[in-house]
């Protein structure tokens, strides 16, 4: 027996069925499979939704960790910038100190140059004195050679002792010059 079915009849009225037909309408066989397929698809979609939700939660956790690390990096960068600023300030201070030291060193070099000029002037004066002394010694030598023959022997003795004295004086002067040069080197 066939069952009368129309989509327009609502609610289902059992009086509309033929005698001997079941009271509740039967669903066609394909519909049950479609329901199962749809239920499976719904279940799969729910499972995918759950998976996506878990992935989103995991990504949110990761994002939170990244934000926390970003905050820490920001703190590190700020601290580094502060340190760099302090280093720049120290470099500026060091430059100022070096400039001041250069000025002082230049002033000292100028003083040392002035001292050397004075020493050079003193050496020139000493050279002039030695030249005068040589002229005097030459004059003495000439005077000694003009002494009469009577006093020649005495003159020779005096000349020899005078030469010794002169040599002693010259050697003393040479020692004095050596000491002066040595002192000049140590002063420099």
Describe it for me?
By secondary structure, this protein is mainly alpha-helical. The protein is 81% helix and 0% strand.
Radius of gyration, taken over Cα atoms and rounded to an integer in Å: 62 Å
How are helices and strands ordered from N to C?
A: HH
Approximately what portion of the residues adopt beta-strand conformation? under 5%
Mean pLDDT: 80
The level of helicity is over 70%
Structural class, by secondary structure, is mainly alpha
Index terms:
188 residues, mainly alpha, rod-shaped
In short:
With 188 residues, the chain is an all-alpha fold. It is built from 2 helices and no strands. The protein has helices at 29-145, 152-187.
Write the layout of secondary structure elements.
Layout: H1 29-145, H2 152-187
Helix pairs in contact: 1-2
